[in-house]
Amino acid sequence: MGDGMASEQLLHQAVATTRPDWYAARQQMLLDPTVTMLNTGSFGPLPRPVFDRVTQLRRQLAAGPTDFFLRQAPPLLWAARVHTAAFLGTIPERLVFTANVTAAINLVASSLRLASPGEILMSDHEYGAMIWCWQRVGQRQGLRIRTFPVQTMTTDPGAIVEAATQAMNRRTRLLFFSHVLSPTGLVLPAKELCAEARRRGILTVVDGAHAPVYVPLNVTEVNADFYAGNLHKWLLAPTGAGFLVIGAGNEDRLQPLQVSWGYYPDRYPIGEVTAAAGPDARDAYGSTPRIRFLEFEGTRDLCPWLTVSTAIDFQAQYGFENIRRRIAELAEYTRRTLGGQVGLPLASSPAPGLSGAMTAFALPAAVSAAALRRELWQQRVEIPVIERPERLLVRVSHHFYTTEAEIDRLAEVLRQLLPPSR
Ligand SMILES: Cc1ncc(COP(=O)(O)O)c(C=O)c1O
Q1: CA distance to 103, 112, 258, 275, 335, per residue, from 279 (Å)
Q2: If you classify domain 320-417 with CATH, what class do you get?
Q3: pLDDT for the residue numbered 27
Q4: Which of 38, 157, 165, 418 is the most buried (most CB within 10 A)?
Q5: pTM, two decimal places
């Protein structure tokens, strides 16, 4: 398997010279105009071309399921794999499509056998469900879970690497961290963290739930043993699109979560069986035997995966660097409005390179999370109130389609709802 970066990725990182009309771009989004939607960090809405494509594919599936699954889908699946791999900075032979990042991380966690006694190391800002996933590994395999502290307002990526390396020791078997932290949107220096772990013989699993589009991602450069992510958040692909990239040297480490027809690649009894020329050669199903072994989980809706190319092309027309520049402008506006005008303490790093499309603020201690969530939604404001051990946060997501008027409306609603003495 070669690891050369496809030139297509360079194309996707290219900077368009003219500034896009962001208000026209927003008209492409199928957003409910009665809602102030500031939660792309949890679930991405769909642009019209993405919705149209996935709907068209589902119509084809509905009209002729056998023809769709056996004849139409395989070349489309391979094309999606090639395009998505180039976008992520990897090769199609390493890219496993999954339903979401949770499935991808569970696939890795349920497969790995780690030497016991030992430790799994992670940051102290990981996503709750993924902490549980690794806790189960710890319980089953006799491993302790340890965390390293991250100062979420840091402006120094070196300090994050330092905190992680100080926590690594001879018992550390695996390092797990989010490329972008969910509660505050802090971007961790993934490449440097993986390099430090690798130097010490520690396996690395990166949760890139938010990373595609949020950062200029090149998975090969990050060089994790396993890199998992979501395409349904910032890439705005349909729900049901996630991925796992298998790092070099880890090709034989995984077992499928669900055993299906990919388990014995040369024994599928329906359709035309063509023996692939080796585990990494393209097969008749839009995969390779190695990928299909992990990816094929029985009959399922493939349409979200087949639509990822449309989602990539949709944002590529504006230029990903332009999109990230617009996001940075909105981050600045959000800091000025909620921090400066409303007076909420900023909880996210403002540093370029460490910040992005999610900006969090601390809420006053007297606030009830449940009551505030209810009241925000009564005002048709969609935004998460996040309970961290140290304090309550409100997390603003701002993608290219977010408007200053929406941030102003959030500020107005928070002024009404929060206690006056802050
Ligand atoms: C850091 C992180 N990991 C994992 C997940 C889980 O994502 P999904 O439910 O799409 O698998 C999320 C979702 O917000 C997340 O923020």
Answers
A1: 23, 20, 19, 10, 50
A2: alpha beta
A3: 97
A4: 38
A5: 0.95
